[in-house]
Amino acid sequence: MVDGRKIAILGAGRIGESLIALDDKLTPNQGMRAWSTTDPHDAHEAAPVKSGRILLFVHGTFSNTESLIHGLKANPRGLGEEFLGKAIDA
């Protein structure tokens, strides 16, 4: 048997406000970003595109895409660079 319960929606509390502030600090450039194919730190606000392919990275909480791309590029076997190259050239 499933028991249904109504749960009150609460406003933001101190913990939520602290988490939002921490996320703002760790990820100052929030929203969709477009990255240079050569420099993972060269990012700008992404504009909608009418055609073509898009590679979308979704990072975890309190993280950023710059770190993800840097990690790919730092792979000692070159697998990250290979992946990014194939994604760009596809």
Low-confidence runs: none
**Strand ordering within the main sheet:** 1-2
The chain-level mean pLDDT equals: 79
Largest sheet data: 2 strands, antiparallel
Beta content: 5-15%
Shape: elongated
Structural class: mainly alpha
Order of helices and strands: HEEHH
| End-to-end distance | 51 Å
Task: Please give the count of helices.
Answer: 3
Q: How would you describe the oligomerization state of the chains in this entry?
A: single chain
Radius of gyration: 19 Å
Number of strands: 2
Give the fraction of residues assigned to helices. Answer: 25-40%
Please outline the helices and strands.
Elements: H1 14-26, E1 33-35, E2 43-45, H2 65-73, H3 79-89
Antiparallel strand pairs: 1-2
Walk me through this protein's architecture.
- By secondary structure, the chain is mainly alpha-helical.
- 37% of the residues lie in helices and 7% in strands.
- The protein has helices spanning 14-26, 65-73, 79-89, and strands at residues 33-35, 43-45.
- It has a two-stranded antiparallel ribbon.
- Helix 2 crosses helix 3.
What is shown here, in short?
By secondary structure, this protein is mainly alpha-helical. It is 37% helix and 7% strand.
Write out key terms for the chains shown:
3 helices, 2 strands, 90 residues, single chain, two-stranded antiparallel sheet, mainly alpha, 7% strand
